[in-house]
Amino acid sequence: MGNRIFSGGVWEERYGYARAVVAGPWVIVSGCTSTIDGEVRHVGDVRKQALTAFGIALDAVERAGLTRDDVVRTRYYVVDPSHYDEVGAAHAQLFRHVRPVCTGVQVAGLIDPRMLVEIEVEAYRRDEQVPAPRGLPEEPQGEGVR
């Protein structure tokens, strides 16, 4: 079933889940918000909430022995669609050089109305024997699709 990583967050114990699970080469991190020691941080500031949530998720990735460079997928959930750009800017600040796949989703609400964003992260332990794909451009050529 893999190794479990716990952050000590109040929701983990209350709802019976782990912050992250290491399953083979994968590290799959539960949804993270800007809640620390049971308190929502940066109320009203979605960018700071996103950076805090990403920090909690990346801490779990690092505790599993991987780094930000091993992140291959991120997801973020926002209640207000006008927050996509701010969360996207926080994502770019952290992952511009990594370029994981990313999905942004609008949801009806999160568990606490002060929470503006929830983040999920998945990382993959790469086998150093496998060569990187060839023939793909380093940077996107043209406009991306959101």
From TrEMBL:
PROSITE patterns: PROKAR_LIPOPROTEIN
Protein name as catalogued: Enamine deaminase RidA (YjgF/YER057c/UK114 family)
Organism listed in the record: Thermocatellispora tengchongensis
